[in-house]
Request: fold
Amino acid sequence: MLTDLSKRLAHRRTRVGLLAVGLLLLIAALAGVWWASQRNATPDMVRRLAQVAAAQGTWDNPWDLQPRKIASLQQDLARERDVLQRLLLQREIAEQYLNGGSPEPAIGMLESMLAEYASKISPQDLATLKGDVAFAYFRIGEQQNCAANPNADVCILPLDPGAVHKQKLGATEAARRYEALLADPAVDAQSVPLYRWLLNIAHMQLGQYPAGVPSRWRIEPERFKSEHDVGLFKDVGAQRGVAE
Reply:
């Protein structure tokens, strides 16, 4: 009985083994055909990227397609009647303008919201909108002086004198508004470190750091010092013609 059962099991193992070998040979043959076809194919990365872009939905990526996002949000806003939801939608539209590199319409919207909702929302929420306006002005300063006029020192802190903004509207308004926010008791405590940081950066952009920063909010220059001098790695791409 045991011998007969052992023979059956051995026979079964042989059949399974042969089947496995056959399956592996089939896979290998199919892989060879696929590899040959791929080896003769010329990849068209431009076309592939165009296909990916065409298939992208409006909200798949937070950092592009801002006009489509704004149009979608404006449609939602036209249908919305709840005061709080309208506020949230308007703030999101302003943020999309900002993300798309258009801080001016963002500021216009936010200033209108501050006037419209002054008596309808809490002092904390009003302070949040004021923080949005301050950051929009900060972005204006960056775009006018850093993106439009690149300088190898613009991103090295503390800012070198050569990185001081020539067009000062953005940094001036940002500094003024951040200082007012830091003095406002309605500001959320979690926002204070960010506002303090941006206030100091804005004064660097104006060439007024450190003396121009109120002592209460000043980040002393010693905080930017390193224990070891590793030198500076300057961006020379624009000088060498490899960056716009």
